[in-house]
Amino acid sequence: MASRAEEKRRLRAEREEREAAAAAADRRRRRLILLIASAVAAVAVVGVLIAVSQGGGDDESGLGGGESIIGVKDVAQRFRGIPQEGARLGDPDAPATMLEFVDMQCPFCAEYTRDALPTVIDRYVRTGKINIELRPISIIGPDSSTAAAGAAAAAERNRMWQFVDLFYLNQGQENGGYVTDDFLRQIARGSGVPAATVISASQSPDSIPLLRQSAAEAQRDGINSTPSFLLRKDGELQGIAVSSFEPGEVTAALDEALAK
After folding, report:
1. Cβ contact 150:198 at 8 Å
2. Distance CA 227, CA 136 (A)
3. Count of helix runs (H) and strand runs (E) in the chain
4. By the 8 A CB rule, do 246 and 115 touch?
5. What is the pTM (predicted TM-score) of this model?
6. Considering Cα of 163, then 169, then 170, then 172, what sign does the dihedral take?
7. Does the structure show a pLDDT above 90 at 140?
8. 131: part of which helix (H) or strand (E)?
């Protein structure tokens, strides 16, 4: 009997030893899985942080890999599929052209672009009712000329509207000195324009034909504030007066001008 009891104790001890070893192995396996999962999660977080820091938070890729700027993807979507040539946006055979005089530093130009332009594009430009020609002029200060020259350089690549829209979304304080080479370089990259082309143009704005044309037209038509709008239809020019940049206010004024 003693030998049988001892045998039972031995077998029980061996079973408990095997169970303890299995439990220990299971704990090690679980810890390994948790470590691997944590490492994968950490890599994912680092990837997101890198994308945010390089893409401006809401834009991971953008038109040209813009860095530290916002709105790249929205701007790309806004103008996708619309023909551009130089300063013109839209069908060249549209029955009317809206001339938009802007100062790149003007906060009201940025407000119009942000609040009303998307509606104007969808309702009038994409439908072929009008095209729009941008006329960059310099009223606020020297940085206005520098920025306008960059926009004119983008026009040569048929990317002026992306450049200007992206500039407005990242606009700084008037005459705050933010229109640096680095700032223009980032806007250029974000709008798909070679940065070197923009930087080179910004150093000699007085030599750019589009800027001279815009200044001459502004003087001829009595434009002394921005944004200002003219409608060219059947060879005649008329002003478009808006009291706010609410989309409904702008479209009502444009409808009235088109009906004349």
Report:
1. yes
2. 10
3. 10, 6
4. yes
5. 0.75
6. positive
7. yes
8. strand 131-136
